[in-house]
């Protein structure tokens, strides 16, 4: 049987230490029918010199400026011919058999446009990692969470989420995506720059009738926070702005307008908490995010024309913040599963 064309694409930006540490595992543990490509987002460190000296055989795509995760991958993937793209962060160690289970599943299920393996912590390999864990979901206010991670609480992996299931979003840290589907929806929204662009992509794919899945029989180990640290005000800005854009672009009007004041109020509460804890720059970032959201509000809402009036599967019809912080629901399994939107 002919193997599909698979391109593993690592988008690098000033990540030479990660390339030095983790590139060998990717080369050693990827099947021969998967081609590795490095796309460089105009790095200012010596990443290019390192790659040229140690890996001259690898295909290298050099971008003229830093386009972020979304724009960088859009520009790079336009130059790559493949049936499947595997978008892999540079701060990931991969074991043997990390690609095959996901590609085999997607080949057997042609309605699946995107998928992810199980994401474990490189620092604590028996625990899930924040960015994806065992498949991603959001609540109706666009707060993301995962099987294995609710807010900052990470579960130990004891096999409790080993089943292959549909999810709302697959992580951008290790995103398998069908090239035809990626092109059909126009790729990532480059305006997001970084953070939550994969959630937006997966939601748009599902609005077109595609499905998204997690395949935990494959696993990888993610360092996390390699490009922007968790304490970065710029990261705070991106997360708050992009999650609001996510709602504006994809949420049907009958849900969006009643929920928007609630979401904005919770954001203001978060800004107050940042201020009281001495993180004034993060509080300011929240207000900057709101300004950017309202500035582009009309443009973003135009995207909802023609989308289904119902929610895609994988959205929690409640507040994950209320469930976690007030009702003390600390794991995905603690949540009321009947409150998730069902398959259309």
Q: If helices are DSSP runs of H or I spanning 4 or more residues, what is the number of helices?
A: 11
**Tell me about the biggest sheet?**
9 strands, mixed
Q: Which word captures the global form? A: globular
Taking the alpha carbons of the first and last residues, their distance comes to 34 Å
Helical content stands at 25-40%
Which class of the largest domain in CATH terms? Alpha Beta
What is the CATH homologous superfamily assignment of the largest domain? Spore Coat Polysaccharide Biosynthesis Protein SpsA, Chain A
Structure classification: alpha/beta
Low-confidence residue ranges: none
Q: Kindly state the mean pLDDT as a whole number?
A: 96
How large a portion of the residues is in β-strands, by DSSP E? Answer: 15-25%
What's the helix-strand series?
Answer: EHEHEHEEHEEEEEEEHHEHHHHEH
Q: From the alpha carbons, calculate the radius of gyration and give it in angstroms.
A: 19 Å
Chain-wise SSE layout:
Blueprint (H helix, E strand, L loop, with lengths): L5 E7 L3 H14 L4 E7 L6 H8 L4 E4 L5 H10 L6 E5 L3 E2 L6 H9 L3 E10 L14 E4 L4 E3 L2 E2 L2 E2 L10 E2 L7 E5 H6 L12 H11 L3 E12 L10 H18 L2 H24 L3 H16 L1 H5 L13 E2 L3 H7 L18
Parallel strand pairs: 1-2, 1-4, 2-3, 6-13, 7-14
Antiparallel strand pairs: 4-12, 5-13, 6-12, 7-8, 9-10, 11-13
Helix pairs in contact: 6-7, 7-9, 8-9
